[in-house]
Amino acid sequence: MANKRDELIKKYAAHLKDRFHIEPDMTLLKKVAIGLGPSIYNRDSANVSGTDEKELATVKNKFLIGKLGLSDTLPLEEAINEIMVNYGVSERTKYRAVIYYLLTKKFGREEVYN
Prior knowledge:
Layout: H1 2-20, H2 26-35, H3 43-46, H4 53-67, H5 76-87, H6 96-106
């Protein structure tokens, strides 16, 4: 599985470079991908639909609040929406690992993965 995982991590890094113009912290990106477990190998669970309110609520509640330990009083929805807009409305493949990586960096919660 590690080979497939490494291929996916390279793909996520390319998305971060091409779509967001940032040089990713590969150690953190790998930890985020590993943290997502087997879901990264399933096309449906590996992606986030930017128009599905239920899915966006899952990103907020399970990841930002549950995993990163953020308070619901922070502008969590705005952060998610900003990433979705920057990813591009026409981009159908919005990788969950990329979104989680960006949110982790945005809120400065990298220590969660240490």
